[in-house]
């Protein structure tokens, strides 16, 4: 009897425990289903582009080892039992997912298949710890990161990752099923007209090899000084592994052990402090999954329900300017344009742009979360809502409401020469360092020399900083006193 491996958010061959287990249970059927059922949040445009490329890489890697990736589209709740029956599979394996709809689907499928005598096993491939394993002394979920991470670290080092199998077996598929199989192109995941993905193609190499390359480059160079450098959007100072992690092209266990190994053998310029900081960022991802597991509505419901009473402004024009990177605040605009062009944004700038939308434009964090979901290649069911709620102040362990980022001082501190702004906001490229983060303060002669006419080829600020700040403080304070 064949063994069926159902790929989901684990598009890799190495350190893939479900794959390892399935290989021991008979000739292999590798399956991917593009889920078009409505239970789960539909992937955004940038994530669909990534998925398409990642499936391409996976399918080639499987074929190179003698296997085959079967691709279908539809409702997994119906398709999977159907495939199991038609192929006579007696064993099904998958790696776990953690959003509420996926958990419900997987649970129902496991029950249904088990009832028909099929053995079903699920595994942890994408987290250092299962979200339910890490508990407070009172046996509950953590609400604060520091004690959460301390508890994880006290548990010791993660287990060693599994190597990729040398060869894959291939089960013979019934002819009717072979006919039903789709190509990746059939899934129509790539944009056609307009083709907005050229910036994404230039920036990324989706797939397991791309993920390993990225990690290697980061350990060879980028990690030196990460502890402070990670806040600098003008430098290549972070790993950019987030979309690879999102699609499970690399596991946190692999990242952990490769990094630890490079430190021990002296093969990386990163210091022990840099590496501990890097691990703790991986820890924030784990913490987000911990929050999502215990709060399945994280993307739609305020974690702190007091925020349900928040008097958000409805500023459609402001939201539109924000999405397009036309707010008149250079660091905010640079971030949103980086996002649009490359599908990614530096973490510091994610915080600045999110704070600007929520605080200065007093816009509900869910509007920003939705935009990021559609445009990020790393759009993540846990990290995205957890981070947005964190900035809003409605989240777990969130920033206090009176901490409102000033986009000018943030820009001057973290992009001191304005290199980042000039890269993504070409209209301002000729403006000198002094006024690059506040062009409205520049003398008329300097603007003229730089070819800038505010309100014409670069916007005037959509909102005055002191007005926005005061309005936000009042709105948030009203909430706190309720
Ligand atoms: P590195 O600094 O190299 O960190 C390594 C890995 O650790 C990352 O790949 C990521 O998986 C994890 N990580 C790093 N910082 C964080 C963090 N603050 N929170 C959680 N995990 C982190 N991250 C996503 O993966 N998907 C999202 O949809 C997402 N949305 C965000 C929205 C907002 C408003 C904010 C403020 C942050 C968001 N983040 C999100 C977190 C963070 O910005 C990105 O993970 C990070 O910028 C990815 O770049 P990197 O891989 O170079 O990070």
TrEMBL record:
<dbReference type="GO" id="GO:0003904">
    <property type="term" value="F:deoxyribodipyrimidine photo-lyase activity"/>
</dbReference>
<protein>
    <submittedName>
        <fullName>Cryptochrome/photolyase family protein</fullName>
        <ecNumber>4.1.99.3</ecNumber>
    </submittedName>
</protein>
<comment type="similarity">
    <text>Belongs to the DNA photolyase family.</text>
</comment>
<dbReference type="InterPro" id="IPR036134">
    <property type="entry name" value="Crypto/Photolyase_FAD-like_sf"/>
</dbReference>
<dbReference type="InterPro" id="IPR002081">
    <property type="entry name" value="Cryptochrome/DNA_photolyase_1"/>
</dbReference>
<keyword id="KW-0274">FAD</keyword>
<dbReference type="InterPro" id="IPR018394">
    <property type="entry name" value="DNA_photolyase_1_CS_C"/>
</dbReference>
<keyword id="KW-0456">Lyase</keyword>
<dbReference type="Pfam" id="PF03441">
    <property type="entry name" value="FAD_binding_7"/>
</dbReference>
<dbReference type="Pfam" id="PF00875">
    <property type="entry name" value="DNA_photolyase"/>
</dbReference>
<dbReference type="InterPro" id="IPR036155">
    <property type="entry name" value="Crypto/Photolyase_N_sf"/>
</dbReference>
<keyword id="KW-0157">Chromophore</keyword>
<dbReference type="InterPro" id="IPR005101">
    <property type="entry name" value="Cryptochr/Photolyase_FAD-bd"/>
</dbReference>
<keyword id="KW-0285">Flavoprotein</keyword>
<dbReference type="InterPro" id="IPR014729">
    <property type="entry name" value="Rossmann-like_a/b/a_fold"/>
</dbReference>
<feature type="domain" description="Photolyase/cryptochrome alpha/beta">
    <location>
        <begin position="1"/>
        <end position="128"/>
    </location>
</feature>
<dbReference type="InterPro" id="IPR006050">
    <property type="entry name" value="DNA_photolyase_N"/>
</dbReference>
């Amino acid at each position: 009897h064949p063994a069926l491996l159902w790929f989901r958010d684990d598009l890799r061959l190495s350190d893939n425990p479900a794959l390892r287990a399935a290989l021991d249970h008979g000739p292999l059927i590798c399956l991917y289903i593009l889920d078009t059922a409505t239970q789960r949040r539909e992937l955004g445009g940038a994530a669909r582009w990534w998925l398409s490329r990642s499936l391409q890489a996976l399918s080639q890697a499987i074929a190179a080892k003698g296997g085959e990736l079967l691709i279908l589209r539809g409702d997994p709740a119906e398709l999977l039992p159907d495939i199991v029956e038609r192929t006579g599979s007696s064993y099904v394996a998958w790696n776990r997912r953690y959003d509420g709809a996926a958990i419900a689907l997987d649970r129902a499928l496991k029950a249904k298949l088990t009832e028909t005598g099929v053995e079903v096993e699920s595994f942890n491939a994408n987290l250092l710890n299962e979200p339910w394993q890490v508990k407070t002394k009172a046996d509950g979920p953590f609400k604060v990161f520091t004690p959460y991470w301390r508890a994880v670290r006290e548990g010791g080092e993660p287990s060693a990752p599994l190597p990729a199998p040398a060869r894959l077996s291939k089960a013979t598929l019934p002819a009717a099923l072979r006919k039903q199989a789709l190509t990746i192109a059939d899934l129509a995941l790539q944009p056609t007209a307009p083709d907005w993905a050229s910036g994404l193609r230039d920036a990324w190499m989706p797939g397991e090899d791309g993920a390993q390359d990225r990690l290697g480059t980061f350990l060879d160079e980028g990690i030196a000084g990460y502890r402070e450098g990670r806040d600098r959007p003008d430098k290549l100072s972070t790993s950019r592994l987030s979309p690879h992690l999102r699609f499970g092209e690399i596991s946190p266990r692999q990242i952990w052990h490769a990094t630890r190994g490079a430190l021990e053998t002296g093969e990386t310029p990163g210091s022990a402090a840099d590496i501990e900081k890097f691990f703790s960022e991986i820890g924030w991802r784990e913490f987000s999954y911990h929050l999502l597991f215990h709060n399945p509505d994280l993307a739609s419901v305020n974690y702190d329900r007091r925020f349900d009473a928040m008097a958000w402004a409805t500023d459609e024009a402001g939201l539109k300017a924000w999405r397009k990177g036309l707010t008149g605040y250079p660091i905010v605009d640079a971030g949103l344009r980086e996002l649009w062009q490359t599908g990614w944004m530096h973490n510091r700038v994610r915080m600045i742009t999110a704070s600007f939308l929520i605080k200065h434009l007093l816009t509900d964090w869910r509007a920003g979360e939705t935009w990021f979901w559609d445009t990020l290649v790393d759009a993540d069911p846990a990290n995205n809502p957890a981070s947005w709620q964190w900035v809003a102040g409605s989240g777990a362990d969130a920033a206090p409401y009176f901490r409102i980022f000033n986009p000018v001082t943030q820009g001057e501190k973290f992009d001191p020469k304005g290199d980042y702004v000039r890269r993504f906001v070409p209209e301002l490229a000729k403006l000198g360092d002094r006024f690059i983060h506040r062009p409205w303060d520049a003398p008329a002669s300097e603007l003229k020399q730089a070819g800038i006419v505010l309100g014409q080829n670069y916007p005037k600020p959509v909102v005055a900083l002191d007005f926005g700040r005061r309005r936000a403080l009042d709105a948030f304070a009203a909430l706190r006193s309720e």
